[in-house]
Amino acid sequence: xxxxxxxxxxxxxxxxxxxxxxxxxxxxxxxxxxxxxxxxxxxxxxxxxxxxxxxxxxxxxxxxxxxxxxxxxxxxxxxxxxxxxxxxxxxxxxxxxxxxxxxxxxxxxxxxxxxxxxxxxxxxxxxxxxxxxxxxxxxxxxxxxxxxxxxxxxxxxxxxxxxxxxxxxxxxxxxxxxxxxxxxxxxxxxxxxxxxxxxxxxxxxxxxxxxxxxxxxxxxxxxxxxxxxxxxxxxxxxxxxxxxxxxxxxxxxxxxxxxxxxxxxxxxxxxxxxxxxxxxxxxxxxxxxxxxxxxxxxxxxxxxxxxxxxxxxxxxxxxxxxxxxxxxxxxxxxxxxxxxxxxxxxxxxxxxxxxxxxxxxxxxxxxxxxxxxxxxxxxxxxxxxxxxxxxxxxxxxxxxxxxxxxxxxxxxxxxxxxxxxxxxxxxxxxxxxxxxxxxxxxxxxxxxxxxxxxxxxxxxxxxxxxxxxxxxxxxxxxxxxxxxxxxxxxxxxxxxxxxxxxxxxxxxxxxxxxxxxxxxxxxxxxxxxxxxxxxxxxxxxxxxxxxxxxxxxxxxxxxxxxxxxxxxxxxxxxxxxxxxxxxxxxxxxxxxxxxxxxxxxxxxxxxxxxxxxxxxxxxxxxxxxxxxxxxxxxxxxxxxxxxxxxxxxxxxxxxxxxxxxxxxxxxxxxxxxxxxxxxxxxxxxxxxxxxxxxxxxxxxxxxxxxxxxxxxxxxxxxxxxxxxxxxxxxxxxxxxxxxxxxxxxxxxxxxxxxxxxxxxxxxxxxxxxxxxxxxxxxxxxxxxxxxxxxxxxxxxxxxxxxxxxxxxxxxxxxxxxxxxxxxxxxxxxxxxxxxxxxxxxxxxxxxxxxxxxxxx
Length: 856
Hints:
Blueprint: H1 2-21, E1 40-48, E2 59-67, E3 74-83, E4 89-95, E5 100-106, E6 113-118, E7 129-137, E8 163-166, H2 178-182, E9 188-190, E10 196-198, E11 204-207, E12 224-230, E13 245-250, E14 257-268, E15 271-282, E16 285-310, E17 313-340, E18 345-369, E19 375-401, E20 408-431, E21 437-466, E22 469-492, E23 495-498, E24 503-522, E25 525-542, E26 547-553, E27 564-573, E28 578-589, H3 593-596, E29 600-601, E30 607-610, E31 618-630, E32 636-647, E33 650-656, H4 659-665, E34 675-681, E35 684-697, E36 702-716, E37 718-719, E38 722-723, E39 726-741, E40 753-762, E41 765-767, E42 770-772, E43 775-786, E44 791-798, E45 806-811, E46 815-822, E47 827-838
Parallel strand pairs: 1-7, 11-13, 30-34
Antiparallel strand pairs: 1-4, 2-3, 2-5, 5-6, 8-12, 9-10, 12-13, 14-15, 14-47, 15-16, 16-17, 16-46, 17-18, 18-19, 19-20, 20-21, 21-22, 22-23, 22-24, 24-25, 25-26, 25-27, 27-28, 28-31, 29-30, 31-32, 32-35, 33-34, 35-36, 36-39, 37-38, 39-40, 40-43, 41-42, 42-45, 43-44, 44-47, 45-46
């Protein structure tokens, strides 16, 4: 009911926007326009200075303003012309891509308008869509008021406030998932389980700027257009983005006619996928649909070496080796429509469906050794598990562009919903050194299911107040309801005994937020000041025991600071190529359900997991200094010094299980020396670092992007009487190199043959009770463009040197443990992609050149 109320409220807001913004309807655009084939658009409105009403039948002419390469003289070439509508509207489509455009407007009784403005956006793959707003025409002999037209800034790949990663140029991720892409982005690292870190912190993952219930390995790389990396978000963004934001932008273009791309890939070990993206733009409508299917069958390995201690003295040893065979089937479809109601108003409705079926078969071999390194017993643990899920996403977006250039309102409703079911069967057996069975075989059967529903509504407003001034404001409402059932039974002689591992729970989470930012300029220093307020509440219930846990922030008015998140950005251009920036923000990281839930996970009987319902959110103050330099060859350097202070950092903590816990879990064959992994709030964590990234072009066909991140981390943490404080230096480096052969002879097999090499190194890094070990991996790919660049063939090798493994060491007075894991072994993949398009394709036939649907 409350979701319906939210949707109804948003509808009222949108309807009020219509009623208050446009006093007159904008007619369909069906004038005779001289057009050339392209996908660029230009819109505007001609108004009378005296009454601000639209001028009908004003002559609008569009010229290409070109500089002759020989004489260096400029000349104009007419490319389109039309008369304005009854309300003064004009609309040009299919404009060729010129650097500068001249616009001439004339009307009887009015002074002529003549203006030259830039018309490029810095990205040849994206159409230019420019709104000139209201163009004011003065009566003859009257002075025309000043009009400011702001040119669009080029879309840089590496900016002072964010990095934008073009996925199409990542050859090594073709046919893979979003995880394969993340491995190639500076500042981003991926661990053995596919978890993402940005500068050694966990970032917030968005899809198209909105929350998602998908994991990164559930998103096909071929569905992604670009990825935005924001290391220190302003007050405009969710306050929970303590570790930064990674925003995944999915493919959807608005080029006229029918166009699309299809790809198929196959690899060793078993890895097959197919992907298709289709787009149809005609008249007021833009239809888009994409589909993906993938299948993989591969092995992952891990091993652990442990010394069990008593007050620091080693008593015995334990070794474990695991082999996990994983089979994954994944399919998705996403589609929608953009409705361009007129020059100012656009609606987008989209729907996505995701279906996944995963299977895992794992064998764990265990060795129990005495202090003399003599074999005491062995263990064998086999498990068979199946996991199925359905994820769905529905979106309704609305954009209104005001007549003033840059002023707009965006409103959206985003709904994520889905369910999961899983089943696993675990067998535990122990053997004497001579191979005879020791005791009985323990069997545990688990089954579970859950439902998850998220609703996010947003309204954002942008109002430029002058050349260097801008006001932004918005509100956001987020609700998340989750319900899960999990039952665990010990099976002995076909008799089932319910284990305390069984866990039935539900929780609700809500965040209500509002923000305001103001951008201005004080002499030569630009600034942006913002403040965000958020009220959050989390309520979890263990259904079987009625036990409740959670948090509320702020819990009272005296804790109002827990709900306020300011940000301040200062920037100064030193010259045309150099810029510096200093920024500050305060953020929050709220514990997720798995960190709060007291449920015990025994998938690994020697390393069990449990949440901590006493966890509280952590608060981070972030400070960054950035220096950016652009070189003449479009190379770019970005240097960053950053500092983060986190109060109450959510930190992983490990200890051996207590005797009481062992007695509860003995029917599940948990080892008495098992390690219990949970979470605590540390007192503070301080991080300071330097990040250097260079994007360097070496000639026409070769470019390299090296980056290095140097960091120092100090953890202040205590648990009961234990001091878990630790500190240390770490560094990481990443390199991406691209080379393309341009032989100039399309018949040559080497012409348009591209190569890419990526390499990634991470030094050891301290954690509260030990350190993460160093790791290195490299990927290689080569691509051949075919059929006049309509098709491509890509061959890639992931983990070129078969070196990608992850390790961690825990060293406490009770145990010392080294663990190594490999998620995948070296793999080979071949991908074929084909692009197609027809700008003249028409779904709706024209009727004597005057069809209301063909008005774009």
